[in-house]
Amino acid sequence: MGSQFGETGVDVAGPGARPALHGSKARASARLSSCRRERGPAVVVVILLGPPGVGKGTQGAWLAERAGARYVATGDLLRAACREGTELGRRAQGYMDRGELVPDGLIIELVRQVLSGLSPDTGVVFDGFPRTVPQADMLASVLGDVDRQVDRVIVLEADDEVLLRRMAGRRSCRDCGAVYNIHFNAPRKAGACDRCGGELARRRDDDPATVRRRLKVYRKDTMPLIQFYLGTSARLEQVAADRPVDKVRDALQEVTGT
Ligand code: ADP
Ligand code: AMP
Residue 129 domain-assigned? Predict the structure, then answer.
């Protein structure tokens, strides 16, 4: 498989992207790129990091499709498990409804299963994973077993005010999971999914009190991952996500070289 996000060693950050978080990242990335060229084309592992409601799902599915990579969103996988009433779903539901993180042990098992079904030359875009340092350690270890690592971490950013508005208007299809927004991205017919006709509903964890809790959890447990990845060879990019979907998309295209 070819390099799906462009050459990992070339700095493709353009006007849409904020400066890389750390100067040594580009050098680390160049080293990574040249060492991979000796072994063949790079296949990348990308993490979309950012607070709830910032647009990871909206952009992640598109980015993965464009790159021919697998899109792995742990929130989607957990919601599917809840709908199907599996053991995982039953154990995760309460945490999700309260806006807390599902325990690392359950998430690590879930992601291990997903990754074990992927060939080592598949690109992956992660959305909502990892969310804690132990999850990031586990990912590094699983990837290390097949001589891979996290290549890029893209941090999507927007103020709380923007996030609160987006989550208040978010509606998801009960059947296929497609995401809409009654203010910014309304379906053609109110309440019905454009893609499959399924019923659109508000997420159980999108009520204001739970959203506030999720934002706190993001700051406490997930933001430390920025520091974590600064200490690795992954290249970090910040992308301002407080602008229309197509503008964020353009910026992502620039930073990933797709
Ligand atoms: P996340 O996966 O980060 O929680 P989503 O992709 O589900 O976020 O987006 C949250 C809500 O905001 C959805 O209703 C989505 O349609 C909407 N949305 C996403 N990106 C934008 C954007 N750039 N501008 C306006 N609304 C957006
Ligand atoms: P999301 O769809 O990413 O907003 O996730 C919805 C909810 O699923 C979160 O608030 C958590 O309860 C749970 N969740 C999703 N991914 C993870 C993860 N990597 N670790 C722990 N909990 C998660």
Answer: yes
